Amino acid sequence: MRDGLGLAGIRVLNNAPIPTWFGVxxxxxxxxxxxxxxxxxxxxxxxxxxxxxxxxxNLLVADAGVRGLVIDLSDRNRGELSNWRExxxxxxxxxVIEAGAAVHIFKLINATAELGLSGLENLAGIPATVGGxxxxxxxxxxxxxxxxxxxxxxxxxxxxxxxxxxASDCDFGYRHSCFSLGASVIVRAxxxxxxxxxxxxxxxxxxxxxxxxxxxxxxxxxxxCMFKNPTLVCARAAELGVSITAAAAAAGALRVSAGLLIxxxxxxxxxxxxxxxxxxxxxFLTADKQGRADDVHALALxxxxxxxxxxxxxxxxxxxxxxxxxxx
Length: 328
Ligand code: EPU
Prior knowledge:
Elements: E1 11-16, E2 28-33, H1 37-46, E3 51-53, E4 59-61, E5 66-72, E6 84-88, E7 94-100, H2 105-114, E8 117-118, H3 130-136, E9 139-140, E10 143-144, E11 149-156, E12 162-166, E13 184-195, H4 198-215, E14 222-225, E15 231-233, H5 234-239, H6 246-251, E16 253-255, H7 258-264, E17 271-272, E18 275-277, E19 284-287, H8 293-311, E20 320-322
Parallel strand pairs: 2-5, 3-5, 4-20
Antiparallel strand pairs: 1-2, 6-7, 7-13, 8-13, 9-10, 11-12, 11-13, 14-19, 15-16, 17-18, 18-19
The structure holds uridine-diphosphate-2(N-acetylglucosaminyl) butyric acid.
C-alpha cells in the first residue's frame, strides 16, 4: 500500500482503527503519522483530500470506516507537532506559547495552569488537540479557543505550501474557523496567555470543570454536543422561556441551547439500537460499548426530525462525520 502513495519515509498503517470518543466506527484504509511539518506537507501534496484526525473528540466515523488517507495528528503522534514551548517570556502581564497541532489540550491546560498562565483553563473539560480546538473554535460558556490564538502556521492542501495566518485572518466564529472548511491544515499555533498566579488559574480551572461535570455526562462515550446552538430571534426565544440579555435584545437574536430544544421535544433518554440521548443533557448522544456508529447517526437524524416537527427549527450538526452518505 505504501508504494505509489507518495508517503515514502512516513510512518503508515493500513486498515488502522480510528480512535474516537464515541468509541465506535470503522478503520482508516491508510493512516499516516507525519513526524514533522515537512512530512505533513508531503502527505498533503500527495493526498490533498486526506482527512485529519485530532483527538477524535468531535468525530463520528461510519461502521464501514473511511477510504483513502487519514492523517493522525492526535497526541499519539510523537513527532515535533506534539511539542509546545514558551517563546516569549519578557512581558510581565502576558506570554506567548507555541504549540504543535497534535498537543493535547488537557496536557497544555495542566502545564500552563502550573505556570500561572491564564486563558486555556476556560476550555477545561473540552477534549481536543490544539489543531482540533482551533479548527472548530472549541469553547463553551467560559470562552473559546479563538480568545487566545495569535497566529496559526498551516499547510495549504493543494500546494503543500506552509503559511502563517494572523488570528484576524482565521475567520473565527461560533464553532467555526477557516480551517473547518479544510483548505489548510494546522501545523502549530502561537497562543497569548496572561500571567496570573497558579492558584488563580487552577481555581478557575476547577470552576469550569465543576460546571461541566454538573451539566454534562462527562464519562459517557460521546462527542459532546451533537448540534450547534441555533440562532433564534428574541421573540421566538422568549416564547421558549429563554431569558433575553441586553446584548441579545440589542442584536435582535441569540443562540438558544440545542440541548434545551431537544429536551423540550421530549428526546432525553430516547434510544435507537446501541445509541441514546443523554438523560443529563439533550445535546449529548452516547454510544454503548461495542455500539454502532450507524445507530448514533440514525438517532441524530431522529432527534433533528423531532425538533423540526415540534419547533420548526432545523438543527445544524456540530459533530464531524466521516463515511456517511446522508446529509444531516
Ligand atoms: N438545558 C435544558 N436541557 C438540556 C440541556 C440544557 O433545559 O438537555 C438548558 C440548561 O438548563 C440551561 C441552557 O439550556 O438553562 C443552556 O445549557 P448549557 O449551559 O448546558 O449550555 P448549552 O448551550 O446547551 C453550550 C455548548 C457546550 C458547552 C456548554 C457550556 C454548544 C452547542 N454547546 O451548551 O459545548 O459545554 O454551552 O459552556 O455550543 C460542545 O460544543 O460539544 C459542547 C458541549
